[in-house]
Each structure stands twice: as C-alpha cells, then as structure tokens.
C-alpha cells in the first residue's frame, strides 16, 4: 500500500506565498468591482448607455421578420408544410418577446440615469452645506 505524500502545514508555508495569496485576492476584488462608473466621472456617450437594448430590439425585430417569412412559407409551400407551421410561430413569439424586452429596457435605463444625476446633485449639495 502506498502512503500519500503529506501536504505542508500552515506553519511550514513560506511567508512569501502567504503575501502572494493576500495580494492576489485584493487585486482580484478591485478588478472584479462592478461599480466602476461610480469611481469614474467621465461622461458616457448615448451609444455606450443604450447599445445593449438597441441590439436586443434589432435582433428581436430580425427574428420576428424571419418568423413572418417562415409562417408565410407554410401558406405557399406544400412540401414541409408542417415544419413551417411549427417553426414560424415559434420564431414570431421569440422575436416579439425580444423586441418588447428591448423596448421596455430603454425607459428603465432613462429612469436610472435621472436618479443617478439627482443623487450626484444631492451629494454635491450635502457636501457644500455640511463641509463648511
């Protein structure tokens, strides 16, 4: 029978490895911070703000149109008619769902932008009055 090799205890680890572990986790936490926009004051363009919902709306419209084509093929084609009848409405509903989700996402982003502007304004007012 073989005996597995012993793993070094905490006391046997070198202090350099402990420092490296601590520095790696600290840098990982700083890098993975999701609230970078709080720390940077650079204004973002409209495309930077709205590119995700615009892409979702575009893809939704394209899938919806593809579903319309597939559904209309079920009326015209006699071959594979059942396939067109099943796939057409599926693409129609998926495209409509993406389209509506993207359209709803835009006002939500607008509302968040207004709230962020208000909170920044209130922070400056608070610092002006209380730091005198």
From TrEMBL:
It is a multi-pass membrane protein. PANTHER family: PHOSPHOINOSITIDE-INTERACTING PROTEIN, PHOSPHOINOSITIDE-INTERACTING PROTEIN FAMILY MEMBER. It comes from the Eukaryota. This is PIRT protein. The gene is Pirt. Keywords: Membrane, Transmembrane, Transmembrane helix. GO terms for cellular component: plasma membrane. Residues 7-16 have a biased composition (Basic and acidic residues). It comes from Haliaeetus albicilla (White-tailed sea-eagle). InterPro entries: PIRT. It is found in: Membrane. The chain crosses the membrane at residues 53-70, 90-109. The keyword rRNA-binding does not apply. The keyword Ribosomal protein does not apply. One of its GO terms (molecular function) is transmembrane transporter binding. Residues 1-25 are annotated as: Disordered. It holds the Pfam family PIRT.
